[in-house]
Amino acid sequence: MAASMRLLVRRAIRLSHKNITLTAAGAAARSDCCRGSLVCRCFSDEAEDRSTHFGFETVPETEKAKRVYKVFENVAQKYDIMNDAMSLGIHRMWKDTLLHVMHPQPGAQLLDVAGGTGDISFRFLDYIRSQEERQKRRVARSSQTPSWRDISNNYSTQDEPRESRAVVCDINKEMLKVGKQKADSLGVSAGLSWVVGDAEELPFDDDQFDIYTIAFGIRNVTHIDQALQEALRVLKPGGRFMCLEFSKVNNPILSRIYDAYSFQMIPVIGEVIAGDWKSYQYLVESIRKFPNQEEFKGMIEDAGFYCVKYYNLTGGVVALHSGFKL
Amino acid sequence: MFKNVLSRLVTETVRSRRYAPNGPVIQRLIPASGPVRTFTDRKGEAQPQFDASLLDVLVCPLSKKPLRYDAETNELINEELGIAYPILDGIPNMIPQEARLIQKDSAETPTH
């Protein structure tokens, strides 16, 4: 009850910013909400009477988070192998595309929510490193005969501009543990941090990050609008929100093949490799329940992002949504 | 290999504090403060060190106020609300339900 009030009031406040008069009822709701939102933060009992979808099942909202947690706890160890098996390695291409569209510059601060095993963060740090090397090469080439101005600049610049950093945040400890092990074995730990946190209630201060990514995680969040609100909050002004998620395939032939593959093959692969049919059944069902490209774009715009656009990858199997906080 | 990763982690914390130029790792370890001392103490265990540079961005998810790192209990403490977030394997757990209430005089009770 109070959760819906919060939503209503947030919308009302935003409308009021656009100089639309609020009725008395709206004002009363806002004062109610201050109490309600405090209660909401500490207890989520009010949400028990609301239900949501868990794949094709209907479950109470409090249930969903727990069940999603269990799904990922079970699959954590085999997550990366399963990704390769299910998508036939194409997921690497999707993630690389995300990085290319992101085009991060050295010094950028990334928050990778639902980052789990850290795929996006590793790619981010690699990209930045190659950018830095390219810059160094460019500087080296151009400074073969430095002008007096360049020489004086080299004396006066600070040691290093801000170091880029990637923070991986996930609600599931197991996924982060697997990610951390991967990082340790790759020897990548500079500028990488791991935090257990809830996407709906991020443990970060306002205006902290240049880029917020959530790759294949947002459909598992119980309250997507809350997660989008939090994303808006922690991004710096000018910061970019990027979301990779499975979406709707528009081509009817491709759609039939995709559906057949999803429902016939994927749970079987899940059973064979990870020994878990149900989790992968949940996975394919949750994809169907997630809003399509345009709807999700609308949700992102409602949260307050500007210049929202999406790119369809692999014919719409995956959509990359991007928005800016201005 | 493990030592390499950890020593790099430590140089990162040291570097971020001192803005020192790239120098030999070993020389920097000795004059550094706090976290390094605990690291060398627990070198026998496989206990990864909590990265203190995270404290710059981390806040309590409930009150959005900065946290204090307590090295003995290995927790992040929010004084105002009296709760402590545990750190496991160097990864801080910032889920409010998993935080521990700090009782002043009586024994501690977990919130869940």
UniProtKB/TrEMBL annotation, chain A:
Q: Could you say which EC number(s) this protein's record lists?
A: 2.1.1.201
- Gene Ontology MF terms: 2-methoxy-6-polyprenyl-1,4-benzoquinol methyltransferase activity
Q: Major location, coarse class?
A: mitochondrion
The source's superkingdom equals: Eukaryota
Q: Which Gene3D superfamilies match?
A: Vaccinia Virus protein VP39
Task: Provide the residue positions that the database annotates as binding S-adenosyl-L-methionine.
Answer: 117, 170, 198-199
Arranged from A to Z, the UniProt key words for this protein are: Membrane, Methyltransferase, Mitochondrion, Mitochondrion inner membrane, S-adenosyl-L-methionine, Transferase, Ubiquinone biosynthesis
Q: What is this protein called?
A: 2-methoxy-6-polyprenyl-1,4-benzoquinol methylase, mitochondrial
Chain segments carrying region Disordered: 135-163
Could you give the subunit structure recorded for this chain?
Component of a multi-subunit COQ enzyme complex, composed of at least COQ3, COQ4, COQ5, COQ6, COQ7 and COQ9. Interacts with PYURF; the interaction is direct, stabilizes COQ5 protein and associates PYURF with COQ enzyme complex.
UniProtKB/TrEMBL annotation, chain B:
Looking up InterPro entries in the UniProt record yields: Trm112-like (IPR005651)
Predominant localisation class: mitochondrion
The record, for Gene3D superfamilies, names:
2.20.25.10
UniProt cross-references to Pfam families, sorted A to Z: Trm112p
Q: What does UniProt give as the signal peptide span?
A: none
Q: Does the keyword Translocase apply?
A: no
| Tree of life domain | Eukaryota
Q: Which GO terms describe its cellular component?
A: mitochondrion
Q: Does the keyword ATP-binding apply?
A: no
UniProt KW keywords:
Mitochondrion, Transit peptide
Subcellular location per UniProt equals: Mitochondrion
**Similarity comment:** Belongs to the PREY family.
The name this protein goes by in its record: Protein preY, mitochondrial
User: Which species?
Assistant: Acanthochromis polyacanthus
Organism lineage reads as: Eukaryota, Metazoa, Chordata, Craniata, Vertebrata
